[in-house]
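tool_call: predict_structure(chain=1)
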Amino acid sequence: MPLIALATRLSSRGPVLYRQVRCGLQGRRFELLKFRTMVEGADRMQPEIAHLNVMDGPVFKAPGDRA
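tool_result:
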């Protein structure tokens, strides 16, 4: 994990960890920390690039996306 944190820190600006709220068993919300794999603020950019989405539902996928 320290190597992932170092690689993230050296390769891009922004925090190493991303905080996210999820819905768990019986609808209980909980917060988790994940290593950031997208550019900082990607969730706020989504409305600007919504026209690129080629999937339906809660999934976002744009042609040429890595991963």
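agent: Residues 50 and 60 are 8 Å apart (CA to CA). Proceeding to next step.
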